[in-house]
Design goal:
The chain has 281 residues and is an alpha+beta fold. The chain is built from seven helices and 15 strands. The protein starts with 6 loop residues before the first helix and ends with a strand.
Length: 281
């Protein structure tokens, strides 16, 4: 089914699907501007030419239609109507994610370049006078204790090669903000090298273990590790990952934006904090 809808009305469905409608109004405005910019950027190409469709409704683009339209969202979209992020005369690809660990990263996390074209996506410290904005949130810090037998199987499945029993797991290269860029896994039958944050998260994600958020709540592991901001602690029978944040860490932290809004920051100031050197028009 192909849904043809006016651009601004599309945002009525995207914003509450990507950010809770109960969030601060200035955070919702940030989300509206980001979603509008991201959608415009994607609309420059036809993602599904066989259907004459520009985007789909999933996380591959932006989630659309998972939440009912709310008055607060309509207000946020309408009060920022048409506004997008611009950088060097082009609409910026306004990437965003759930929660930071106190730092963001840049495009090298995805194997790209941190050159002039994407210089607005810099690694920044997401903190204010009272410290990291998200320091009290559950996903700000997390821990995963993974049996080596489980981790060996997950890595072998991802790499499509049997590494055997895991003997070494090490981050050999980190990018801006401390994100893991290169992970080496060695076993008694073989080894593999995994590069970029998304592939590392996918290799270490899966079933068979739980993740403890900093509030003490446990949640089953998912297909992706919460983030690639983590340190490794090796024990005889298990590997403990001490991590922080939820998501890829590029662009705007949605929860960071909400916490900034709670402290009185307006949406333009918040956006210009996360996206360096942009204009909003």
């Amino acid at each position: 089914m192909i849904n043809e809808i006016p651009f601004e009305e599309y945002l009525y469905g995207v914003v509450p699907s990507e950010m809770p409608a109960s969030y601060e109004m200035e955070a919702l405005k940030c989300q509206a501007v980001c979603a509008r910019s991201y959608a415009y950027h994607q609309m420059q190409e036809m993602a599904y030419p066989q259907y004459q469709a520009q985007v789909d409704d999933s996380t591959a683009f932006q989630v659309y239609g998972n939440s009912e339209i709310q008055p607060s969202v309509i207000q946020a979209v309408d009060e920022t109507a048409g506004q997008k992020l611009w950088y060097q005369g082009q609409v910026a690809a306004a990437y965003y994610y759930s929660t930071s660990c106190g730092m963001s990263t840049d495009m090298t996390a995805w194997g790209g370049s941190a050159g002039e074209e994407t210089a607005y996506l810099k690694s920044i410290s997401i903190s204010g006078e009272q410290g990291d904005y998200e320091k009290e949130l559950p996903w700000y810090r997390w821990e995963a204790a993974i049996p080596k037998t489980v981790l060996s199987a997950l890595i072998s499945e991802y790499a499509e090669t049997d590494i055997g029993n895991l003997t070494r797991l090490e981050v050999t290269e980190r990018g801006a903000g401390g994100v893991a860029l290169v992970l080496v896994a060695e076993g008694d039958r073989g080894s593999t090298v995994i590069e970029t944050e998304n592939k590392i998260r996918r290799a270490l994600g899966g079933s068979g273990y739980e993740i403890m958020k900093q509030d003490g709540n446990l949640t089953p592991a998912r297909d992706l590790l919460p983030s690639a901001f983590f340190e490794i602690e090796e024990q005889p029978e298990q590997i403990i990952l001490h991590g922080g944040g939820f998501g890829h860490g590029i662009g705007m932290s949605q929860n960071g934006a909400n916490e900034m809004a709670k402290q009185g920051m307006g949406y333009e100031e918040i956006l210009k904090t996360f996206y360096c050197g942009v204009t909003i028009e």
